[in-house]
Amino acid sequence: KASDALQDITKAMTLECDVENLITAKVGCENLVILNRGNAEIIVENGSLDETSVVQIKEIVVKHTGIPTEKITLVEMEY
Q: Which of 37, 45, 60, 67 is the most exposed place for a label (fewest CB within 10 A)?
């Protein structure tokens, strides 16, 4: 059981990292991706969200995680 749980955690962490890298490459902003229980929370640097970037980020998340758009939350960091 422990081995299976560790493997699941490793897969989730790898997926979060992959999605973060894709967002950075496509949108060009620093970000943090948190995937938890079928939800995705993406925190991006302040001032980086506009209509285009929101669509791009959601497309990346849906394509790579299968999480539907209504379960994706985008938040700008506050400094």
A: 37
